[in-house]
Design brief:
The structure is a homotrimer of 115-residue chains.
Chain A lengths: L1 H4 L5 E18 L4 E7 L3 E13 L2 E11 L5 E21 L5 E5 L4 E5 L2
Parallel strand pairs in A: 3-6
Antiparallel strand pairs in A: 1-2, 1-3, 1-5, 3-4, 4-5, 6-7
Chain lengths: 115, 115, 115
């Protein structure tokens, strides 16, 4: 992974492009789990936005995205996985501060915490 | 507010996360006012994007956002207010130039103007 | 164009604001062409995200966008053209690396290639 190779600890990530297979999720706050949806079609990556932080000393990627369909409507949410086609144009911008992340049992998600 | 504390004058702001109460608006250009919509449910913050500029010498936040529902559809527009849950991951990137903002009577919105 | 004036070679571009005429496109990967849709109404620019790269030695702009309607729904895709109203707040962030772009006959789009 680029973040590990380049020793990026904390960064902003933004991308546009296309995908031909995608898994999105919505966080169910009552059940504390992610509800997943799979899409098997070509979608424009209208926006992927998120960050790289350190979890257990390793880069952790957290991305939300908006994906455009043929009729100009969208699906959007927490990105679980994506298969890129034909390309994804990504800008990774390291931040001045380092942010650490860990799993929070009360909330049910990986949160950034104060050090 | 962070911008005032850190003496940020002009910056780009980008965020992802979640909210459980949200007020969005659409600018009605004929009536020159914002039409507001309130959402009382957990929504993924798929994208919040905007800027901090100086208005009357104080930091002024202007944010537009896309928010994801449980069925992967979205609501989107000008962000009036939002209640964060469980967290909002924000990257604030100061710009080299300073931008000033003031209310423009003709248009009916706060605009960035040339100095 | 700002990129040529400021000698920007590769940059990230992000913007919010409003438009009153817009042409969006979806890439049809079977036919290898862009299917265009035109909108003649005021839309909030919820997110415009993309990049400037060099194609044949000249700045080339590639932008995807999400645009908000009066009912808080969106249209989104590859931005072909847009008429700004009342303003577009753009942040252009030059990257450390230079990216070059050229047309790829196999895929049917302008791609960034390794040098």
């Amino acid at each position: 992974m680029i973040a590990a190779l380049e020793r990026v600890r904390t960064a902003q990530v933004a991308a546009i492009g296309g995908v031909d297979r995608l898994t999105l999720a919505y966080f169910n706050r009552e059940k504390k789990n992610y509800e997943e949806h799979v899409y098997d079609e070509y979608l424009e990556v209208v926006s992927m936005l998120g960050d790289i932080t350190l979890k257990d000393g390793k880069p952790f990627l957290h991305i939300h995205g908006t994906f455009g369909k043929r009729d100009m409507s969208v699906v959007a949410g927490h990105v679980v996985s994506a298969s890129v086609f034909p390309l994804l144009e990504v800008v990774i911008t390291p931040t001045k501060n380092t942010a650490l992340r860990r799993f929070d049992d009360d909330v049910g998600v990986n949160v950034i915490f104060k050090t």
